Amino acid sequence: MKETATLLLLDRESIPIIRFQNDLLSKFEIKQAVTLNGWGIKSISDIDNRESIEHIKLYNVEDVFDVETLIIIKPHRYCDFEQHVLKFIDKNMSTIKTIICNWAEQTGYIEKLCNKNKIEYREIGYGNYAINENKGHLLQLRTPIIYVASTSEMSDKFMCQQSLFQYFIDKGYSVELIGSKSYTELLGGKSFPLFMFDNTLSNSQKIIGFNHFLRDIEYVDNPDLIIVGIPGEIDGYVNGISRYFDDIIYLVSKAVKPDVTVVSMLYNEIKNNKNLENTLRYKYGWELENVFVNNMMFDSQLSLAYKKKEYVKLDDNLIENEVIELNKGGRTKFFTYAHLEIICKNIEEQLINFGNESIV
Question: Which of 75, 145, 250, 335 is spaced 20 to 30 Å from 220 by Cα?
Fold first, then answer.
């Protein structure tokens, strides 16, 4: 029987947990989610412009109710940890039995709080896998690999990973997902290895380490398919607003060559797909095969004004019309939310054609 859980705080960062929990969240059933009044979230659909989920009750951080298991996810939007998170915990302490924390900067404090109040505590984050210093060369993998990368934040890269993961599982394949989110294990996958962010390691160590990390998964789990969601962005700097750079994408590209690639992007980035095609080919050695376009647009004027990244949501019909035109020529295929299952089927066909047989 699944444990009843409450998600704190719900926004664009944590929405995949809600969207995919019925299929992939095996231990918990999220029936309640907490948000902030100032975020303007009245229903689940307000977050990503997709269908609402009526059976999940939304609360504000000021509310008091039965919590049981509390899953804390660091939000994309700003919140005051002490004023919002800690006050919520304090008000609802009597009904909290377990806290699962995905907020790296605050895990120590939350753990001490749990120990003091006899609450079960669990931390989730990027995978703490060790590098074997004695392995000094790249190994060949036989398992098909799908890389999922993105050109920007807020482009729903993780939703693409989870859609692929769910599709191939439903098809009966044995699949391993290494997800770009640090909470991937909540949804049945493995979180991206922490050593890839370690500044004390050389690039060579990271490349060989990631290669052996995937090879160990192949050897131990013997999957039919490995899906890798890569943190970071292909573009590093846009209109004077700094973003995550693509060091990790480059290192991963040198560790193992993928069989299929998926790139997620914002609506206003699809005009530059030719430049992106050249970047992927000559920098990473990939082909631009499958592109997912979400319903968000980077707002450069607002971003410059506020000195932080700002985005606006767009009407799905506008994006659909643009994608129809793009798909009239060229080998690159463009997809939207309405085509998530189609992109999965397209990739399955790519893999089958690549080996002239099923990926099993």
Answer: 250
Report the pLDDT averaged over residues 13-33. Answer: 82
Burial 18-48 (b: 16+ CB within 10 A, else e): bbbbeebbeebbbbbbbbbeebebeebeebb
Structure tokens of 251?
């290192």
- Of 42, 39, 41, 84, the C-alpha closest to 63 is 84
Q: What is the pTM of this model?
A: 0.90
Of 320, 349, 317, 327, which is closest to residue 273 (Cα–Cα)?
Answer: 327
pLDDT of residue 207: 94
Contact 113, 89 (CB under 8 A): yes
The pLDDT value recorded for residue 242 is: 47
Q: 318-336: b or e for each residue (b if 16 or more CB lie within 10 Å)?
A: ebeebbeebeeeeebbbbb
Strands 145-150 and 225-229: parallel
Residues facing 150 on adjacent strands: 264
pLDDT (tens digit, 9 = 90+) per residue, 343-360?
999 899 888 887 655 444
Reported as a pLDDT band with limits 50, 70 and 90, residue 262 is very high
Angle between helices 157-170 and 340-355 (to 10 degrees): 60
